[in-house]
């Protein structure tokens, strides 16, 4: 068996366009029950998906057979979020069927691009963490590693964002209202999940045994989404659990007259997988959220154990050899006591044996240092929902504190209370981060600087206790979706100038650096950028009515709205430019279009105020003749994966301006640089590694470093020091207090000013303002030198090889999962 991924060129499309045309027609008739003259665009999309699914399902079957024939070790990736986006275009690319399908549909009088637009995004995630999980699934399948993604089959993914008078309003996302052609329900693998109730100790043969009498039973129904590797390599499974009432409808209660009660039970059960919590990087702390976490962790573990026992019965020796479980942040951390519960209570294993297995199987990725995201559960809530698990956590904690901590630091109560899973205080809390570290054999951060901060600031005592446990795996992105599929023109140019297997060997783009000074290549590269900008200009016009000039610099900030990501720093700088133009209409600047995409958590007031402010400033500037077309501001509504795919290829400038130490890694930074955008950014997260790869000349670094941020904070940061000493900064901050941007409503934007001054400016926006504005001048100057700009853009594309998610996955495999690749038989 080869362990290599086949090279791109050795793969041919598995069907001709004629054959595909027949398949699509066949499905239009027999699956959709319609015919070409009558079919809607949606029906064409469904029929096309059904035709492609024939190849997908064949690959899935062969892959699953291969895995079971070789009894493969697999990683089980547990994540509350998978932000998959659209699947048709991705599957077509990965199967090398894109051109063939394009032709087949054209022959049927249809346009593939329009048909692709029919597909709703699978938005089962908030942002970085969920999109990373999706890129990882793509890479795992591409590299032929056995893997299963486990998550929740949310009925409603991340809300749809609309603007009303500039304010964000949320509408439910109905991604599967009319069904979804990719998913397969697997009733044969349904699981029963217990909740609430009490624990009884029973004595049998002189031994105490714990019996959990649940107060509720919920059914977990699995839906499988095939994940197609590039080159049609393996097809892995993303298994998403849907919650249902156990007795779907309680006829006894119903017949006894309890109509409402019977339905309430059903509604409560279904509520579990009803909706994705829309909070990015904030802990929700709500009972339903804990139940969601347990629900999908328990269903996944039951599934993992079932699959294992099918091959190995009660022989547990192979379990840690065949099973790796990755916890995507702490959200699935309850899987640790759940596995203990299964082994001890259900399988009758002794504590030490169970813990030994558990510990070998789990590993945990930390995705943020923000204190508000570090999950803690109120102990009483935890006990109410999961009484048996709390007991097990106490026991895990007891073993840990008395055996490991006491040995290393005898008699040190301070360190014990810092390391305890239970936080003492007015309200006792269960610390899920601690549980995850203690229960895992490896813990990783997601970029070099972040992993260092995990060691030094977040878990220093754990690091002292287990110096080899904490490690780094720098994030990555799949070049298939984020270059080949979303930027076909650039992909084609690269095909002609670099080795054709770049979609799997992204490091081979390095060859393009030789062409960075080649005038013809520069022109070709910049022409493509311009065409992509023209396309985005059309999208902007269609979505907002705003006309933008593709000749201007397209400066893009796309990511969730958060104070730490500092969209308001960008906004203050826009106000400064506007002010300069008003003061001097001849002010010399390259025309610039600032483009934002961002959703705010519905309960995050200031984030929503910042969106409102961007929209209001945009209204005013875009309609002000005096700026002479030099400045435009656009906030695109409903930012999501499929919109990112249109924005990223068109970016000249990538805004990565978080407060140093706050952005764990970032992955949008990688996507934008790969598509030839120049980063303006702080030395934070993966920006540092991007600058290392591209060279500091090809990025615009500004602002305080992690150490400077720490030093300033410990000296005592006073935002007034900056506000009062920088006239331009003061003027733009004060502008927010007027009604200039919100006529008749003075103070409508004041909350931002307030947070920056009296609120203490927790993310040091004012401290970094001047340095940011200066870096922006350098951006302007570089852009005027078209050759220099083209050179930097090309070098950015050429040097992003490191950020291939295949490399991240290989790092996980080498450092943590220890998997072997298994290309499928019959491939
Ligand atoms: C994010 C981090 O903020 C981002 O920097 C990183 O690139 C991404 O994870 C993937 O690692 N964190 C989250 O989205 C989150 O919810 C709990 O963390």
Automatic annotation (TrEMBL):
CDD domains: GT35_Glycogen_Phosphorylase. It holds the Pfam family Phosphorylase. GO terms for molecular function: glycogen phosphorylase activity; pyridoxal phosphate binding. InterPro entries: Glycg_phsphrylas, Glyco_trans_35, Pyridoxal_P_attach_site. Keywords: Carbohydrate metabolism, Glycogen metabolism, Glycosyltransferase, Pyridoxal phosphate, Transferase. The modification N6-(pyridoxal phosphate)lysine is found at residue 671. Its EC number is 2.4.1.1. Its cofactor is pyridoxal 5'-phosphate. GO terms for biological process: glycogen catabolic process. It catalyses: [(1->4)-alpha-D-glucosyl](n) + phosphate = [(1->4)-alpha-D-glucosyl](n-1) + alpha-D-glucose 1-phosphate. GO terms for cellular component: cytoplasm. Belongs to the glycogen phosphorylase family. Phosphorylase is an important allosteric enzyme in carbohydrate metabolism. Enzymes from different sources differ in their regulatory mechanisms and in their natural substrates. However, all known phosphorylases share catalytic and structural properties. This is Alpha-1,4 glucan phosphorylase.
């Amino acid at each position: 068996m080869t362990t290599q991924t086949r090279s791109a060129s050795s793969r041919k499309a598995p069907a001709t366009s004629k054959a595909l045309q027949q398949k699509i027609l066949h499905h239009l008739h027999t699956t959709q029950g319609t015919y070409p003259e009558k079919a809607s665009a949606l029906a064409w999309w469904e029929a096309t998906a059904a035709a492609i699914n024939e190849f997908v399902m064949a690959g899935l079957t062969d892959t699953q057979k291969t895995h079971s024939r070789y009894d493969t070790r697999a990683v089980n990736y547990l994540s509350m979020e998978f932000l998959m986006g659209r699947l048709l275009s991705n599957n077509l690319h990965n199967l090398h069927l894109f051109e063939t399908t394009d032709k087949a549909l054209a022959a049927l009088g249809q346009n593939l691009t329009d048909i692709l637009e029919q597909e709703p995004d699978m938005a089962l995630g908030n942002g970085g963490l969920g999109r990373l999980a999706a890129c990882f699934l793509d890479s795992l399948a591409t590299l032929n590693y056995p893997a299963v993604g486990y998550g929740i089959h949310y009925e409603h993914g991340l809300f749809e964002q609309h603007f009303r008078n500039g304010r964000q309003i949320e509408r439910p996302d109905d991604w599967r209202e009319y069904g979804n052609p990719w998913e397969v329900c697997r009733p044969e693998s349904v699981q029963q999940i217990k909740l609430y109730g009490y624990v009884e100790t029973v004595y049998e043969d002189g031994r105490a045994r714990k019996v959990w009498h649940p107060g509720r039973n919920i059914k977990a129904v699995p839906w499988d989404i095939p994940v197609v590797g590039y080159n049609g390599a393996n097809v892995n499974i993303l298994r998403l659990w849907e919650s249902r009432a156990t007795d779907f409808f309680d006829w006894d209660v119903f017949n006894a007259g309890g109509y409402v009660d019977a339905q309430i039970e059903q509604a409560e059960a279904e509520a579990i997988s009803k909706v994705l919590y829309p909070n990015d990087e904030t802990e929700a702390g709500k009972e339903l959220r804990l139940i969601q976490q347990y629900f999908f962790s328990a269903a996944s573990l039951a599934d993992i154990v079932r699959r294992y026992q099918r091959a190995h019965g009660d022989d547990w020796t192979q379990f840690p050899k065949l099973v790796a479980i990755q916890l995507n942040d702490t959200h699935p951390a309850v899987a640790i006591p759940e596995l203990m519960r299964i082994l001890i209570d259900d399988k009758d294993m002794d504590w030490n044996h169970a813990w030994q297995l558990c510990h070998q199987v789990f590993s945990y990725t930390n995705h943020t240092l923000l204190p508000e995201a570090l999950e803690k559960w109120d102990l009483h809530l935890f006990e109410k929902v999961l009484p048996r698990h709390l007991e097990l956590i106490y026991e895990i904690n007891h073993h840990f504190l008395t055996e490991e901590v006491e040995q290393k630091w005898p008699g040190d109560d301070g360190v014990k209370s810092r390391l305890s899973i239970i936080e003492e205080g007015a309200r006792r809390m269960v610390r899920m981060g601690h549980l995850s570290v203690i229960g895992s054999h490896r813990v990783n951060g997601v970029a070099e600087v972040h992993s260092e901060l995990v060691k030094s600031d977040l878990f220093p005592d754990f690091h002292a206790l287990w110096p080899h446990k904490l490690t780094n795996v720098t994030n990555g992105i799949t070049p298939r979706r984020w270059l080949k599929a979303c930027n076909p023109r650039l992909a084609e140019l690269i095909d002609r100038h670099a080795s054709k297997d770049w979609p799997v060997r992204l490091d081979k783009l390095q060859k393009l650096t030789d062409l960075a000074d080649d005038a013809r290549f520069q022109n070709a590269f910049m022409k493509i950028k311009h065409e992509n900008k023209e396309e985005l200009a059309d999208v902007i016009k269609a979505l907002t009515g705003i006309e933008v000039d593709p000749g201007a610099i397209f400066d893009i900030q796309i990511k969730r709205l958060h104070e730490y990501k500092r969209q308001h720093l960008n906004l203050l700088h826009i106000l400064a430019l506007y002010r300069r133009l008003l003061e001097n209409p001849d002010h010399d600047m390259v025309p610039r279009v600032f483009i934002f995409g961002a959703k705010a958590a519905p309960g995050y007031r200031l984030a929503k105020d910042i969106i409102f402010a961007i929209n209001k400033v945009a209204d005013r500037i875009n309609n002000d003749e005096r700026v002479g077309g030099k400045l435009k501001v656009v906030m695109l509504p409903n930012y999501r994966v499929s919109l990112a795919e249109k924005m990223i290829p068109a970016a000249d400038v990538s805004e990565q301006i978080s407060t140093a130490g706050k952005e764990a890694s970032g992955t949008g930074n990688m996507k934008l640089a790969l598509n030839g955008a120049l980063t303006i950014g702080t030395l934070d997260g993966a920006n540092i590694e991007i600058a290392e790869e591209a060279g500091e000349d090809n990025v615009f670094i500004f602002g305080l470093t992690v150490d400077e941020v720490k030093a300033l904070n410990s000296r005592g940061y006073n935002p007034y020091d900056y506000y009062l000493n920088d006239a331009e900064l003061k003027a733009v901050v004060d502008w927010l207090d007027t009604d200039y941007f919100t006529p008749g409503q003075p103070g409508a934007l004041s909350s931002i000013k307030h947070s920056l001054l009296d609120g203490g400016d927790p993310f040091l926006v004012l401290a970094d303002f001047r340095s940011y504005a200066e870096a922006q001048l350098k951006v302007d100057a570089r852009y005027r030198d078209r050759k220099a700009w083209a050179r930097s853009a090309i070098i950015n594309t050429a040097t992003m090889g490191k950020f291939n998610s295949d490399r991240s996955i290989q790092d996980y495999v080498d450092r943590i999962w220890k998997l072997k690749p298994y290309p499928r038989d019959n491939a």
